UniProtKB/TrEMBL annotation:
Protein name, as recorded: non-specific serine/threonine protein kinase
Source organism, top-level taxon: Bacteria
Lineage: Bacteria, Bacillati, Actinomycetota, Actinomycetes, Micromonosporales
Transmembrane segments: 171-191
GO molecular function, one term: protein serine/threonine kinase activity
Enzyme class: transferase
Signal peptide: none
Keywords: ATP-binding, Kinase, Membrane, Nucleotide-binding, Serine/threonine-protein kinase, Transferase, Transmembrane, Transmembrane helix
Its EC number(s): 2.7.11.1
Keyword Membrane attached: yes
Biased segments, Basic and acidic residues type: 115-129, 138-159
Location of region: Disordered: 115-164, 194-218
UniProt xrefs under InterPro entries: Kinase-like_dom_sf, Prot_kinase_dom
Length: 401
């Protein structure tokens, strides 16, 4: 397998190399359109390994890609190949996004012919409207499109509509050309397209283990299956926010959380609920005195879930149960001071084990039957009478054990 990582579909990274089909080309098309529309590929990162990790675990960053193109591109970037549209379905979606349609390809007979050929080659059923023989007939399509345009003309200012139609026709022609090429071109994007985005990393010959013939960057292997991975160097699975509790922002390659006097704050994160044995690893830094980094796990609400607090003089595991907070265990240690520290929390067989920088600090039971699943949250709590607090996080990874 050769190609540029940023354009590769998730299935290309499977260890056993399952069959990679046209769905991988649809994924690459989505990457290409995102880059054309935003100036960045949707899983941009600083290295091939980081880019591959984002492709496997992160939702696409589509920037200011306009609707309805945004929704169409999002479908082409689905992790599961079966969730992506075929080339013919994609073409139907593009030709059915409002007041424009095949009529706008009137000045491009070559593209119209290529589009019809692409539709005819695809044996799988398309959207319901595409199953109607009248909508597949060029003259019927043109008539429908003209009717829709006439209705729009009555509702819109003629001058503004004319200006929009010119730009839309150019965009539609370009998109259809790309889709028509996908109909029979094979994996040309993933194999030959140059990477020009900010995550430029050059061509990769293989992501196989050593022994495949040529060395290549690989995603770091660790125990368990990755569920969530985020470098926290920009808004992604976690988002920026500001309210009366404090702020969540991204600066210096990390996520910075602040809170006011005697308070606490957490950043908006993924809504995924993680159940069963799992691990959470993240790098954290205490930026203000009396700040405690907080990892919430199996959280069901603000008042229900587990906590791991990492303070300058201790690490505490506790559980929130309605109006009460019960301490499970506390370990006195000054290990979590002065610079970055890698935290690992493992939940196995009803026991939580927490470590800092590879040093196992303690364990505690996490057997509350109400809390068999829940969200992972990141934030801080101010210890005692601290006037304000701030903590930085980066490189979070959540795995299913």
């Amino acid at each position: 397998m050769v190609g540029t990582v940023a354009y590769m579909a998730p299935e290309r990274f499977e260890a056993h190399e399952p069959a990679v089909g046209p769905a991988a080309d649809i994924f690459a098309w989505g990457v290409l359109i995102t880059y054309a529309g935003t100036g960045s590929t949707p899983f941009a990162a600083d290295s091939p390994a980081a880019t591959a990790a984002r492709i496997l675990t992160q939702p696409p960053a589509l920037g200011r890609l306009p609707s309805p193109l945004r929704e169409i591109v999002a479908r082409t970037l689905a992790k599961d190949p079966s969730d992506r549209p075929t080339a013919a379905q994609l073409l139907d979606l593009l030709l059915d996004t409002g007041s424009h349609g095949a009529a706008e390809l009137t000045g491009h007979p070559d593209l119209r012919q290529a589009a019809e050929n692409a539709q005819a080659r695809d044996p799988r059923p398309r959207d319901p409207q595409a199953r109607n023989p009248q909508t597949r007939d060029p003259q019927a399509r043109d008539a429908q499109a003209r009717d829709a345009q006439a209705r729009d003309a009555q509702a819109r200012d003629a001058r503004v509509q004319g200006a929009r139609r010119v730009g839309r026709r150019r965009v539609l022609a370009t998109l259809v050309a790309a889709v028509a090429a996908l109909g029979g071109a094979g994996a040309w994007i993933a194999a030959d397209s140059p990477e020009r985005g900010p995550d430029a990393s050059g061509p990769v010959t293989s992501l196989k283990p050593a022994g495949s013939g040529k060395p290549a960057p690989t995603v770091r292997q660790a125990e368990g299956r990755v569920l969530i991975s985020d470098r926290l160097d920009r808004p992604g699975r976690w988002e920026a926010a500001e309210d009366e509790l404090g702020t969540c922002s991204f600066a210096g390659g990390r996520m910075v959380v602040t809170a006011g006097a005697g308070g606490a704050n957490s950043c908006p994160g993924p809504e995924d609920r993680v159940a069963g044995d799992q691990s959470v690893a993240v790098t954290a830094t205490l930026l203000e005195p009396r700040s405690c980094a907080w990892i919430g796990f199996r959280r069901l609400s603000d008042a229900l879930g587990y906590n791991l607090f990492l303070c300058p003089d201790r690490v505490t595991l506790s559980v929130d149960a309605g109006d009460t907070r019960n301490t499970v265990t506390t370990v006195r240690s000054a290990i979590f001071t002065g610079g970055d520290h890698r935290i690992e929390l493992r939940l196995e067989k009803g026991v939580a084990t927490f470590s800092v920088d590879g040093v196992r600090l303690g364990t505690g039971p996490v057997g509350d039957r109400r809390l068999l699943t829940g969200r992972i949250e990141l934030g801080l709590e101010i210890d005692g009478r601290g006037e304000r607090g701030s903590v930085a996080f980066r490189d979070v990874e959540i795995r299913k054990l």
